[in-house]
Specification:
Strands 1, 2, 3, 4, 5, 6, 7, 8 and 9 form a nine-stranded mixed β-sheet that branches. The protein has a single domain, classed as 2-Layer Sandwich (Alpha-Beta Plaits), CATH 3.30.70.1230. The longest helix has 27 residues. It is globular. It is of the alpha+beta class. The protein has six helices and nine strands.
Length: about 230
Amino acid sequence: MGLKADLEADVKKIYSDQWSRRDGRKVPEDVDLKSGNDAVDIEVTILYADLDESTKLVDNYKDWFAAKNYKTFLQCATKIICSEGGHIRSFDGDRVMGVFFGNTKNTDAVRCGLKINWAVKNIIQPKLKKQYENTKYVMRHVVGIDTSKVMVAKAGIRNSNDLVWIGRSPNHAAKLSALSPDTPTWITDKVYDTMLDKTKIESDGKNMWQKRQWTAQNNRRVYCSTYWWALA
């Protein structure tokens, strides 16, 4: 069978087969799903942490310097995600996706985003400047967070596949991570309304978040913050 006929058969089967779906009791892994139309439905909070303006970084600096900044950012982000109970499920160049599950998933994800902001400004940037005193590069980043039910399936071919996360929260969290790094943590209304006050209100009663209208998404209510959560 040639490639054309092979692909035609694959596409026909995918479109014609019915889905086998079940509710998730945990964040799914690759082994939990079959390669056919098999899916898990699960309520999760998705966090995307994205290194800002990475194109300018690779265009204007040596590749080894850009690589070190990719690695330091992703190293800090992934360790913080895991420390907050998140699950790493995807890397895409200069960004990482974390998945949070459970009763405090929104609070955990938001605290994670605030800790990433602290790490960039208080660990990465000072050490970057100390190592490369003459560099003009300043690391900036954005974290986007949303929560919803998602459908998780496996896509690709044997030995070259990955889980795909279909739903509002993966899409919107990714798009939020492309917004302004001037306020590096962005969350949606669903996250803000259900997270605990410890990630919302300062000890003096001041709200840490600024409300915005997300015009690109039908004026959805979102919130952004410049605050951070210090690491111990």
